[in-house]
Specification:
binds pyridoxal-5'-phosphate; single chain; alpha/beta; Aspartate Aminotransferase, domain 2; seven-stranded mixed sheet; 2 domains; four-stranded mixed sheet; 14 helices; Aspartate Aminotransferase, domain 1
Length: about 425
């Protein structure tokens, strides 16, 4: 569906990837080279509204001047020491985030999947050393539809055949229960005393922006506490303003035992993730039992502090709440039979497409790309709409206009 002009300009880039890359992604046919705020530009200078924001990693907007300045300043001083030595920023960073989010301790990692993996390891350790679970019996429960990455542990927890098929054998003692089902959680915890943790996203992102009923998180909190099971909240995608609050768990005023953050923790400039928890959980780890060469490096600490402070200083959570509401209101006003649902919270939104006449969510995304907006389907029919949180009201209107034009032009096909 992309025009011949676009296709020929990008051909040399596609060709290189085709010849030398692995085919583990299916990107939109666009080649980007610059970003600023909500916009990105392709190699031919065409401008697009970025409605993916690198899967919510660029909450603060592309190349935020404060974050880039901090990155460059720190890069000229000290970037990596490993954890073999102390450096001057790690403690400051740990204190900053613990105090902001109300936790006792932070463990720094790099990617989201590492944060989640660390949380599961911590829970198992706590299970053996505090809860008294017999050796090698610790079990962890996950919600169906979860997504926390591509490691062997993450795919062992996955209910998506595309993620796990032909990658086995899988990690044992991982159990899956339906999402948004407190009764299922209570049932499995009652049956198995060796369960150490339940991990879930407060809103499921990759599954297609699935919002649980109000009260689910409160119920999870209460059930986990009652069974002495750690609740791990994977806020790698929902965290840091995305849903209209600093944390999505704040919507129900609940605090998980272990919190995983990533993505926007660095404003999208480098991989930075973190696990936050209590002393009781975190101090089960002794030197040598867990770590990462890059985790907690000076560059990451400097960038993460600035990136989070930008979210706070620029009231990005409140902006996400207001702009998200406007976006959903504009989308439901679009009179197109192709829309089967609009849902979301803050700026974590989904537009569900009713496929017909050979037109699916993919074709809608191609059409929107032609018109200057980038978004990507997830799970066949759902288009995730997650722009940077610095988006203005005018830019929301611009986006809604493009989405409307794309849908109506396809209706005319
Ligand atoms: C909720 C959630 N957790 C974890 C991850 C994994 O993060 P990363 O790709 O940085 O490893 C993702 C990535 O999309 C995610 O959405």
């Amino acid at each position: 569906m992309s025009s011949p002009v676009i296709a020929s300009a990008f051909a040399k880039y596609f060709d290189l990837e085709h010849r030398f890359g692995a085919f583990n992604y299916h990107p939109l046919p666009v080649v980007l080279e610059r970003g600023e705020g909500v916009y990105v530009w392709d190699v031919e200078g065409r401008r697009y509204l970025d409605f993916l924001a690198a899967y919510s990693a660029v909450n603060q907007g592309h190349c935020h001047p404060r974050i880039i300045r901090r990155l460059v300043d720190q890069a000229q001083k000290l970037t990596l020491t490993s954890r073999a030595f102390h450096h001057n920023l790690l403690g400051l960073y740990e204190k900053y985030l613990c105090e902001l989010l109300g936790y006792e301790r932070l463990l720094p990692m790099n990617t989201g999947v590492e944060a989640c993996e660390t949380a599961v390891k911590l829970a198992r350790h706590w299970g053996y050393r505090v809860k008294g679970v017999p050796e090698n019996k610790a079990a962890v429960v996950f919600a169906e539809g979860n997504f926390w990455g591509r490691s062997i542990a993450a795919i062992s927890a996955s209910s998506d055949p595309l993620s796990y098929t032909d990658f086995g054998p899988y990690v044992p003692e991982f159990y899956k229960i339906p999402y948004d089902d407190p009764e299922a959680l209570e049932n499995i915890l009652r049956e198995n005393p060796h369960i150490v943790a339940f991990m879930c996203e407060p809103i499921q992102g990759e599954a297609g922006v699935i919002l649980p009923e109000t009260g689910y998180l409160k119920a999870v909190r209460e059930i986990c506490s009652r069974y002495k099971v750690l609740w791990i909240a994977d806020e790698v995608q929902t965290g840091l303003g995305r849903t209209g609050k600093l944390l999505a768990c704040d919507h129900e005023d609940v605090k998980p035992d272990i919190l995983c953050l990533g993505k926007a923790l660095s404003g999208g400039v480098m991989p930075v993730s973190a696990v936050l928890s209590s002393s009781e959980v975190m101090l089960t780890l002794k030197p040598g039992e867990h770590g990462s060469t890059f985790g907690g490096n000076p560059l990451a600490c400097a960038v993460a502090m600035e990136a989070v402070q930008v979210v706070v200083d620029e009231n990005l959570s409140a902006n996400a709440e207001a702009r998200g509401r406007e976006l959903r209101e504009a989308l439901v006003r679009i009179d197109s039979s192709r829309i089967s649902a609009v849902r979301g919270k803050g700026l974590m939104n989904a537009l569900v497409i009713r496929p017909k006449g050979g037109i699916t969510a993919w074709e809608v995304c191609l059409k929107m790309m032609e018109l200057g907006l980038l978004a990507k389907p997830t799970h066949h029919h759902t288009i995730r709409l997650t722009p940077p949180l610095c988006i203005t009201r005018a830019q929301v209107e611009e986006a809604a206009h493009i989405i409307r034009t794309a849908l109506l032009s396809l209706d005319a096909v």
